[in-house]
Task: inverse folding
């Protein structure tokens, strides 16, 4: 469970309801089915018109996925890559095939890494390996970005259709005239509530979901780039110690303080040499 | 027929009309010819002033085209490319000419692919083939993007001219004064209805059309890039198995789950080697 | 004459006036000299403050230039390039000098093309030719883009100064107080009319002019890139048939349907080989 | 202490309070707890929903960090690099190890520089050194940019939730009706005060913090690029005088007048040669 | 003196005051000290919070600098470069040192050019010269862009703090209630006048200053790129005639009509060859 997302929703909606209650407002009066239908229905229609059925299928999946915290595997992947590098040095590149193909039911190997190592074992040219794996990331990223754009679209449509609801409500007021103040109040209520829904849906649901998935995608790319770098180094029989040096930059993704990490790194290395 | 586009329009307009009716609004009162003339006519005029006649001809074509679902040919193209690769390996590059030139009335070969293969048969340098085909995509994409920009312009002009209608309506109110409340109501009606039309036209018609065509263009580019990669590999007599490895990244475009696909891939390959 | 620009202005202003008249509005009341002075004068002042005198001189030129339809010369340029390529093959590179220098009073040779061919005749290195000509496009494009940005600035300033007029008008209302409703109506009239002028000037004059000139600049770049490609191929004695293949991508600029064009191309080539 | 940041807050809030007081306004009436809860709480919730816990931890750190002025070390780093370059020339590359590893309790060596020099001592290939160190900057910059984006998000959410507060306040007014003018005034007060808080928080706290940290990051990158350039030059045994020439461009970061600096540079060099 | 800037301010402010007076408005009533304090003071505070003291020092300098028209030296620089090229051809590269070091009290040599030529004399590798000089431009441009961004920030803050003043004014109205219409009018006056000041400061002062300095920076870059190209050509002993051909593209910066210039160029060259 991604606690930050849950906390965010609680803090966000809680603050608004709380601040409203502090001034004596009645939160229940903010709930109105027709406003919800106009804002969310209109936005959903526009999103449907924007994207193909093929892509729309991913929309509910993404809204759930964002609530699940991905396990950061950067540290263990790095250790595993260094282990592979040492094994390759000691027992030759071919020894990696058995290692990578061994199915460990508890801990699955990243298929991307596996694919890279199998190409190393096949003796594929390192530039070719890098090309194929980079292209893999590129295609994945293109595809993923298009999906995240659905959330951006949703975030842009919600306030627009909130405004549509407001305009419709005001037109209704004009049609009814000044004679029935009850209808007038009700209609203006619809007007403002749709705007409220539009802004809240965009700012507490769709913008955060898009931002979080985009940020995870950026980390995904960095992690895969680390794997490409390591796989090519293994193919080129680079010294495991130099590989460690190379990969240490990526530790920052896990939230370790960079400057410290790289200092430790250098210190360790300094000592190592003594 | 692109069901998502049709569904989108139904959901979008339906939600707004439905939500409006839930509050007792009369949808018929939202229809007004003069508001339509100002909003759509003004926007059309601005779009005409923005683009050349040559380009404007494509506008109606694009609005229809977006309703037709393009058949995804990535899987069959990939199979065909692998088939060509194997044939080239077995019977030589020249054997491809007959294959590619054979007119199959049921299934037409992609002219872009055909052009590439004919250059391979001609013995053109692989870098030259890549240059020519990439340039082909580049020119096509430039041209297509300019056309899609017409829809972006439309989407930007509609709310602007909706606002123009609103301003004009309000000015009319002022000229008429406070004496005739009937004219006042009517004029403010025009004002808000033009804004409504502007926002709806932009958000349910032009933005979705532009988004969908741009997304298809991105897939078009990915598919053509796959063909270039494959054609150059065929020219360089790359092993068909390695070509399969290379192309597998592109399967994700068809909506197959990437991680799974690439895992299967690796597994298959792993088994293949046993 | 660029018919689309003229049509655009007629459709745009006509729709607004027409829609306004349909509701019984008097178009004459929308004309007001002081509103015009504030909106256009303020914007012009800001544009003057933004750019140097040297650049401002081009502003009126561009507003006229956009009304003149440029003749598309891509087809004839391509034919001429292929003719030069064949001549160079048959009679040697030096034969091109006479050809390119011959002054034809009816049809002038593109000085950019002439410059390239004269460098070919001089035996300049092909990479150097490409560098010099590319740099020529780069400098031209930089300079031209800066000029088009003046129109973008105008388009951004007009609504801002329209709003300035509205604010000033409202302040005047407040100063006059509620006692003289006539002055109040007049002042609010100024307010809304300046906003109207700002939006219309931006959306029917300056945005369209900038868009059209920018789109022509993009085509200019594509055409010049085609010339560079062809000139370098001539310098490298590339086969005229391959050059034709290379250049065919550019036909799309003339509005020919790409897929069809490239298909014909391939077909022709297929037949040619029989 | 970064005086500009402190001064900025004083000038900003002071001017607003001062200008308000000049017109006889009572600043105390602008303080309202519920408005603060809605604006800041809502924004905080949205930011929580946008980013992972791992990244959110950096948020308070960044708000403090921006108040501390970083010491510019570009001049001393440059001198140190030139000193290392001369030492390497005179006593060989290996002599650098002792120099760089010597712990000086008063002045710590930049771990990034140390890491580069240790690779030089190890005899790592210069291209490899450049790759590893550039990648280090790249990963750091990616990570840092993501953190600064949290502040951008905050700056974008504050006005949105300020508006949410305004809308809620207005809805409350409608619910209360026209009967109790006291409640009406209070509610509209909430409405405008939340908008005010949203705009002030964004424009005086979050936008400035993001801008300042982004600007420091740009300087950080320039400084590290200088180190990479120098380390590679030392590895390649470049003449210290030429290295000085190379590095002099970077002096501008310290705020020295560029043209003057480079002139002095050239003059000195001119004299040096006499 | 940059006449366009002065003219711009006169036309801009004059049109607004003139148009206002045409409708009988009293310009004096638009002046209000407290509105000025809130708008400009608030923006200044925000800019202080955004940037370091080191950078803020350049702010007044830039506001004055924009009023001074820079002398275009592109033509004379080009002539000087061609003169250096010919001299180098005739008397050898070393002869340039004396030439470039000679101090001419009337006309100072561009230190950037001088630096390049001294490296040529030193026999530095042409790629190295290009690297060092390009890096010089890059660092200068980075630094300069950051300074110009201060003006962009100012332009963005002014309307925001104008709006802050408006909101504060309206809150004051509410606090005072409907009982004192005089205070009400005065307070709404403050409200609108701050918005007016914000929009005018942004659109007539800060946006134009930023635009003009950015445009000059672009020309600066083009001129320096021309120098790099020429210096490297001199180092490589390129034919002065070819250098002239190369540099002619840059003449367009001076406002000469490009097509004509390049035609003359070609014509001249055509004649030269006869």
Result:
């Amino acid at each position: 469970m991604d606690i930050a997302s849950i906390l965010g929703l609680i803090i966000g909606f809680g603050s608004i309801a709380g601040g409203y209650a502090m001034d004596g407002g009645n939160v229940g009066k903010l709930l109105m089915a027709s406003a919800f239908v106009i804002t969310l229905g209109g936005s959903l229609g526009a999103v449907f018109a924007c994207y193909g059925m093929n892509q729309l299928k991913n929309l509910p999946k993404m809204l759930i996925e964002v609530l699940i915290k991905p396990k950061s595997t950067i540290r263990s992947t790095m250790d595993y890559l260094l282990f592979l590098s040492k094994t390759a040095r000691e027992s030759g590149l071919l020894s990696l095939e058995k290692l990578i193909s061994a199915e460990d039911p508890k801990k699955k190997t990243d298929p991307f890494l596996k694919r890279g190592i199998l190409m190393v074992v096949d003796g594929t040219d390192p530039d070719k390996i890098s090309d194929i794996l980079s292209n893999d990331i590129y295609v994945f990223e293109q595809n993923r970005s298009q999906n995240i754009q659905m959330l951006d679209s949703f975030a842009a449509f919600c306030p627009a259709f909130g405004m549509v609801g407001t305009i419709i409500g005001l037109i209704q007021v004009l049609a009814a005239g000044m004679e029935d103040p009850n209808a007038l109040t009700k209609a203006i209520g619809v007007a403002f509530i749709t705007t409220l829904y539009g802004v809240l849906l965009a700012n507490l649901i769709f913008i955060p979901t898009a931002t979080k998935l985009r940020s995870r995608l950026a980390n995904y790319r960095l992690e895969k780039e680390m794997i490409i770098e390591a796989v090519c180094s293994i193919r080129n029989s680079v010294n495991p110690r130099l590989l460690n040096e190379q990969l240490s930059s990526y530790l920052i993704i896990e939230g370790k303080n960079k400057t410290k990490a790289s200092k430790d790194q250098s210190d360790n290395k300094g000592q190592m040499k003594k």
About this structure: Residues 181-235 of chain D form the longest helix (55 residues).
